[in-house]
Amino acid sequence: TQWKESSTRPKLYLKPYLCGIMNTERIMHYRSGVRCLYEIQVSKLADVMVRHGVKKGDRVVIYMPMIPQTVCCMLACARIGAIHSLIFGGFASKELSVRIDHAKVIHTWNNKHHCIILILRLFRIICCFPLRSEILYSSLTGVIRPTGGYAVMLNWTMSAVYGLKPGEVWWAASDLGWVVGHSYICYGPLLHGNPTVLYEGKPVGTPDAGAYFRVLAEHEVAAFFTSPTAIRAIRQQDPEAALGKQYSLKSYFLLTESGSPITASCVGLGNSTTPPPGQAGKPVPGYNVMILDENKEPVKATTLGNIVVKLPLPPGAFSGLWENQEAFHKLYFQKFPCILHHHAVADCAVVGQEDALKGHVPFALCVLRDDIKTEEKKILEDIVEQVRNSIGPVAAFQKGMFVKQLPKTRSGKIPRSALSALVSGKPYKITPTIEDASVFKHIEEVLKKK
User: Fold this and answer.
1) Is residue 319 within 8 Å of 135, Cβ to Cβ?
2) Largest CA distance in the chain
3) Edge to edge, what strands does the sheet with 320-321 contain?
4) pLDDT tens digits, one per residue of 142-178
5) Closest CA relative to residue 354, chosen from 442, 305, 419, 302
6) Mean pLDDT of 181-187
7) I need a surface site. Which of 45, 269, 333, 398 has the fewest CB within 10 A?
8) Picking from 10-19, 166-175, 335-344, 429-438, which range would have the lowest pLDDT averaged per residue?
9) Would you state the pLDDT for residue 131?
């Protein structure tokens, strides 16, 4: 991986949060024409990995927090042609073990000195290794992502999508274990020549709801990438942004978010420039996005439907799963399959229920087997625990109820959009293809009792 050398401005800011005190920041430089400390650290670690037998094409697990050494490990892997798999710290042991099984060497972080096994003393300068790498480990599993197209796409989006010029400060408030962290904390900014902020804290509680504003002001951040959940958490604790108003945001011009729709009032919408409700903007080049009905026919304007993207996907998108096409169907075409693994559940549907903080949370509608005598409350507790152990707390699954039957079309499909509206207390539409429309009334009655 080659980063863009543009100026003497810092390329990596670290904002750590330790023991309730905002610790001293660390600034890493990539200076044009100068072999700086951080580049030497990357080369040192690359040499250590080579000496330990890591070679091009090997998979390396990185299970570390939001610290500069994590980025160092990523760049060291890229330097020698190894494939890194960053793991988000919120995953349960089962999900962690799956990723470890795919790896050759494991890099971990621990504050106990006897656990640190990589010693960076004598080293050789390791040059970048040319390799047509095609695998990027994301938050769920190994996805095949052609590296050439990925790098070109990241570099292009920094200016075309986010409007940044080289040298302007960028902050993606995500985790390196997510694909956003891969793309827009590490590689995207470095490829485009933008200083990138690496933040260890949280939106609130480290120490307060003004933390994000302080980082934006101190580093003169020009563009900021975050999640609606983070913005809602800040608004919940500081509704009038009193803490945020203490800081000057004169250099700040762009907020962008991902994960779910954001509440309009969170970003000051409501004036004459407000876009039409439901408008998300235009797709980037290469995507053929359509809205289809249940019969896979295009819908009319202003009509709700299913968002689909026609294949093939453009450069930068993933093109398959790493040595596991069977898992592709299980992960992307089944909804919470581990619920169906519970011995008491005969059928289930998981839909999104509106939530004031997170936008939507998973809500399970379960049908029990006829011979089950256990209390429903106990079964639901078991299911929640089973999902947590299988997927991890990141699944955020806590709500559900039991019904006698699920509504289905004559072809056996579950109308999840209608069920999502129903459990959220909103109007819903029953399509003519539903086999037994009375099931909706039954679910409404159960909801009222709950």
Assistant:
1) no
2) 74
3) 135-137, 142-144, 320-321
4) 777 778 888 899 999 999 988 899 999 999 998 888 8
5) 419
6) 91
7) 333
8) 10-19
9) 56
Residue type at 440 in one-letter notation: F
* pLDDT over 70 percentage in the chain: 71
Q: Do residues 149 and 286 touch, judged by C-beta distance below 8 A?
A: no
Q: Contact, 319 vs 144, CB < 8 A?
A: yes
* Domains in the chain with CATH codes: 10-269 (3.40.50.12780), 335-449 (3.30.300.30)
Contacts of 440 (CB under 8 A, 6+ apart): 407, 418, 422, 428, 430
Give the residue from 72, 70, 78 showing the smallest Cα distance to 54.
78
Percent of the chain with pLDDT over 90: 20
Residues forming a β-bridge with 281? none
In order of 251, 331, 397, 416, the CA distances from 335 in angstroms are 43, 8, 12, 11
Residue among 420, 442, 440 at smallest CA distance from 430: 440
- What phi, psi does 255 have (nearest 5°)? -115, 130
Could you tell me the two tokens for 306? 């299913």
pLDDT in tens, 201-214: 889 988 899 999 99
State how far the Cα of 172 lies from the Cα of 22, in Å rounded to an integer: 19
C-beta pairs of 115-122 under 8 Å, 24+ apart in sequence: 118/45, 118/48, 118/52, 119/48, 120/41, 120/44, 120/45, 120/48
Specify whether the CB–CB gap between 363 and 423 falls below 8 A. Answer: yes
Query: Would you call 220 helix, strand, or coil by DSSP?
Result: coil
C-alpha span between 23 and 146 (Å, rounded) = 38
- Tell me the torsion sign for CA atoms 443, 448, 449, 450: positive
Q: What is the mean pLDDT of residues 42-66?
A: 86
